Amino acid sequence: MTDAAIVSPRLEPGPRGQKPRRKLSRRNIFLYGTLIVVAVYYLLPLYVMVVTSLKGMPEIRLGNIFAPPVEITFEPWVKAWATACTGLNCDGLSRGFWNSVQITVPSVMVSIAIASINGYALANWRFKGADVFFTILIFGAFIPYQVMLYPIVILLREMGLYGSLWGLVVVHTIFGMPILTLLFRNYFTSLPEELFKAARVDGAGFWGIFFKIMLPMSLPIFVVAIILQVTGIWNDFLFGVVYTKPDIYPMTVQLNNIVNSVQGVKEYNVNMAATILTGLVPLIVYFISGKLFVRGIAAGAVKG
Amino acid sequence: MTSVSIKDLCLNFGTVQVLKNLNIDIDEGEFLVLLGPSGCGKSTLLNCIAGLLEVSDGQIFIKGNNVTWEEPKDRGIGMVFQSYALYPQMSVEGNLAFGLKNARVPKDDIARRIANAAEVLQIEPLLKRKPAQLSGGQRQRVAIGRALVRDVDVFLFDEPLSNLDAKLRAELRVEIKRLHHRLKNTMIYVTHDQIEALTLADRIAIMRSGIIQQLASPHEIYNRPVNLYVAGFMGSPGMNFLDGEIDDSGAFTFGGMQIPLDRYPFSTADRPRQAKFGIRPEHVVCGAAADAEPFSAEADIEVVEPMGADTLVWAVLDGREFRFRVDGQSELRSGEKIRVGFDPARASVFDATTELRL
Amino acid sequence: MTTRGRPNRLFYNLSAKIAALPMMFTALVVFLGGTVWTVVYSFTNSKLLPRENFVGLDQYERLWSTSRWIISIENLMIYGVFSLIFSLVIGFSLAALLDQKIRYEDTFRTILLYPFALSFIVTGLVWQWILNPQFGIQGIVRGWGWESFTFDPLYNPDIVMFGLLIAGLWQGTGFIMCLMLAGLRGIDEDIWKAARVDGIPMWKTYLLIIIPMMRPVFITTLVIIAAGIVKLYDLVVAQTSGGPGNASEVPAKYVYDYMFQAQNLGQGFAASTMMLLTVLIVLIPWAYLEFGGKKHD
Q1: Which long-range contacts (CB under 8 A, 24 or more apart) does C152-158 make?
Q2: CB within 8 Å: A151 and C269
Q3: Does B306 touch chain A (CB under 8 A)?
Q4: pLDDT of A182-233, one tens digit each?
Q5: Going by CATH, does the domain composed of B2-229 fall within 3.40.50.300?
């Protein structure tokens, strides 16, 4: 008799299955309406940048900034890249671009190499006093850079690196250290400790375990760190201005000098083309990396 | 009198069928346990009854009302969660009162219900505390209290004891049973722990991949499992299964041995050739007593596991693994030979292809 | 080795200590040493080069009697208060909207977060262009026939900080939203179920249960926003250069200008020490709550 209850279809009249609801319920209109308005607001500046950069100056003077270009021209892009002037130099943003590449690549590599080993030492080879240094390091992340600007000038001058590209690499390594060390320390701590113990029992040492056991397991966190550092260093302005000379200014500094130069007629289309060009690298990194970007900034921030 | 009735209930997540055409009638005051491994759909079913998940098809009746489209608060249910789900920034009293205040229950009525629930659950001294200041067991009492004050007909429990340690779990289990005796509400209780199911339930529904395998009393499920799955799932250590055939004389043969089935209460007239014979370790007797049983044979003892009250013996019978349970005081040793026997009347025989009980 | 028993403590874990040398150097020499150095030299009258000519609180007296510094501080307070409030409110609201099991959640999140990948320089320049009175929003609205419409925050000293705020929020709220969303996702789903069974309306659940439960997330976010606000520099340089006049000057810019342009290091040091003090006022109570409190749990 109990088994009989399992079979026998015996629905009664009345509500059944999913509650019918209109697709355009008030809730959905409000929800998606708000989100779409917000999304448009966030996309607008990008749209304005692109549209402006594709117009000629006469069209800009006549039309409004939101209107799509009547006549598409790539002239501003060429000019921004190759011939826009900053002070006496008239070779466009390309110089800044290559400067930024030359600054970013070694900075990312050095800072990540040092921070990953640091994080590993902190996570797996605790030694007395390590926590004190680490605490100071994390506190350092919150101290305004302005406080440390000048001491670092002196430091770089002593090392003979002031005003050079490698000086800036050192600065980025130093200021990237708190967040990267935290990132790696947390990651290595999250790996099973038995793995580390087993490797030690098998006779592997500090470097052996790092290169043979830890590194192969850490690809995701390295990608996160690279995303974090590439965007961070590419977007830096303050350190570029303080620690380099005009001929090796990174792209952001050069962009600002082009756009905010007081001489000559303002060429808004060239300015916007230059702005997009500068924003392009981090944007590409962002759109390719997707969720890892979110993970990177969240991991760095929430636990900080 | 039916309290909760589930009719042709289906739930799909996208193309995945999570619950498949379920039908259950639960009597007024009945304690029903939904039992199964994780992912079998038991918690999903409970969430559907609570109204926390929308069903894809079918109907749910509570106290004769079709509540398929109702909000959880209007269904006349109270629910207790595995993670307690207490509101952390409110005191115990606040937790109990929050839903009632929101439903605009008169103040003195709220006070009376809280006092009553606190008395039943013996949490009066805790009323002013915050959940963080309570132990796991106390928190779960408060969570039960929150369901209690709602003054409802049906209680839903979603693995309420899983976060507690073994000792507390046993204590609270008894308490829930006591509560049921006192309140006489309908209770639906989800668990993956078969001891909880056997001790608490009036009836158990064993679920597997969205289908109810057997819905029956604990006694029935333990002694007369309807299929191989239920037989293997219930009982720890599990039932011994012997692969073999039913021969023309109606006996079960495996290897060189023959088990007479004339005392076995067949429930169907089918006599397929390929069959599986199942006998629980606790239904096996050994030593001299074995020869008094309708079937007995010699087994080699491999491993002896003394567990205090009783001892589990892992032996080999005709080249197959065979477990049986003996008294805790027995002094069997591995390597010895021993006579084992059992009464086929207590066994379960299944069709090897359909896996259904014969 | 084995017969000599335990090796010297200093050499125990030697590789790890060597590996941690860059960290020790950064922590001790740069962060701690640099900070102390700057604070000490803020009591000197260093001009072009640092000199150990101590003049007591002279630099601070001069600092607090400089109108540009007072304006900088006021601007930072205005920007800070509004930025905090709007970031938290907008960030949380957007996170709550995205948490409604909506379709295309990833797309919306990608759109809301992309500005955060851009530098403040890029952000400042775009908004400088959009807020351009002649061609930007004001120009367009006037073009529709509303001739008297005025919206020129970058040219109006009274509201220029709000021009910066619009850009700053555009850049940063997506990030705050992500932090809040992570916080919301971290909340036990059973809490939501319990609230539904109790019949608590959704807005009330957010207000009375979820937000109080997210207190740690809010505090951490607050500290992150606050630390970012104090550093506010690039955006101002790009969008307004401190103008019109010095109506949008901020402390970080004051420090840079005095250190590297006006060759008045002492002023720069004093100003940066004041910035440090501001951060410590936020940071120390937070660290006390966050790390001091944990020991009692």
Answers
A1: C154/C128, C154/C239, C154/C240, C154/C243, C154/C244, C155/C244, C156/C244, C157/C244, C157/C245, C157/C247, C158/C247
A2: no
A3: no
A4: 889 888 888 888 888 888 888 888 888 889 888 888 888 898 889 889 988 9
A5: yes
